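Many introductory courses stop at the sequence. We go one step further.
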Amino acid sequence: MSKPDPYLVAIDVGSSKVAVLIGQRDENGGVEVVGKGLAPNRGTRKGNIVNVEATVEALKHATEEAEVMAGIEISRAYVGVASTDVRSINSRGMVSVARRDREITLQDINRVLEAAQSAALPSDREIVHAIPQEFIVDEQGGIADPMGMLGSRLEVALHLVTANVTRRKTLLTCINRAGIEVAEMVFEPLATAEAVLSHDERELGALLFDIGDGTSEYALFAEGEVQHSSVVPVGAGHFTNDLAMVLRTPFSEAEKIKVRYGCCLSDLVSEDEGISVPTVAGGPARVVPQRELCDILQPRAEELLTLVREDLIKAGADECLRGGLVLTGGGAQLDGILEMAEQIFNCTVRYGLPQGLSGLVDVINCPTWASASGLLLYGRSSEDNLRRSGSRPGFSVRNVVGSLRGMFTDLL
C-alpha cells in the first residue's frame, strides 16, 4: 500500500475572503491542523470570479500566511466550489447483469454508473460529483454495495452536481497562477458535511445550510447520502448592504454594526437600546434604535430561509428533516437567525462547528472555518479511498466514486 502524503491543504475561495488550512496526518490516521491563512478577497462576487488578479493576490496572501505557520510549502490543495452556477439533479441508470450466473461484478457497477451519468448536459456544463444514493437489484432497493449479489437487473440512483465549465476553469487558473496544483474541486456543502454532520444526522435526514457572504449553499442528507443540494444568490453580504443603503452609512461601518448589534428577530431586541451610526462623507453620527436595525435585517433573513424552504418543498424533500437543520458559515452567526430557522423549518436547529480535527482547533472553532475544515477531512477520505482501490483487489462504492472523482479532475 502506497504511503499517503503527510500533508493535506484546503482552500475555501469565498466572496469576501480566501481561507486556507494545512493539515498533517498523525500516526492514527487523524488530521492535525498545523497552519491557517486568511485574506480578504475583492475578486469574486456571488461566488464567481470577476477579477482574476485580485483573486490570485488573495490566494497568495492566504497561502503564504498558512505556509509560514506550518513551516512547509504548499503545492497541492483541495478547493471548494460554491458559485451560483452550480446545479444538482438526481439521475437513475439501469443495466442487465452480464454474467450467466447473474452475479454482479465491478464491470456491471461501472456500466450502471455510466448509464446514470449519460443524461445530456448542455455544452457549457460538466459533472463535478456523481454520488450513488442507492443501488437497486431486481427492484430490491436500499443497497449500498451490490458487489457479489445475484440478480438480472441492476439500477442506481445518483446525485449529480454540475458546474459551468468556463467559471470552473477560471477558478482553476487562479489557483494555478498562485503556484498550487488542484487535487480536486469539491462542492462545498459536501465537504462541510464531513466536519459538522454526525452519522446519525446523515441517516435520519438533516439539512446542512452554509451561509456565506455572497451565496448560501445547502445539502440535504438522508439514509447516509446527499439527496438534494443547491445554491441561492443571497448571503451575509446582502444583510450588510441592506443596512448600508437604508442607514446611509459606509459599507465597512454597516458590517461592524451588523456584527456587533445586528439581530434579525424582533422578539430578541430591546426597545430602548440605541446604536450610533456614522453617516457617509464624515457627517455627524445619528442614533438609531436597535429595533430599526432588526426591521432592516429581518425581511432579508426571512427571504433567505424561505427560498430554501420552498426549494425543499419543490423537490419533495421538506419532510426529511428528522435530524434537524445545521447552520454554518460566517452568516450563521447573526443573532436571531437560528431561532427564525426553527420557526420556518419547524425542526431542531443547531450551529455547525468543525469537528474531527486536532491541532489549532481553538483557532478555527467557529462556523467561518467549517468549509475549509470539511475540505481537509474530505481530502483525507478521498485519498484513502483512491489508495485502497489502487493497491488491492476488491470493491466498495466509495472506491468507485473516488475513481470517478479522479477522472473528473483529469478532465479539467
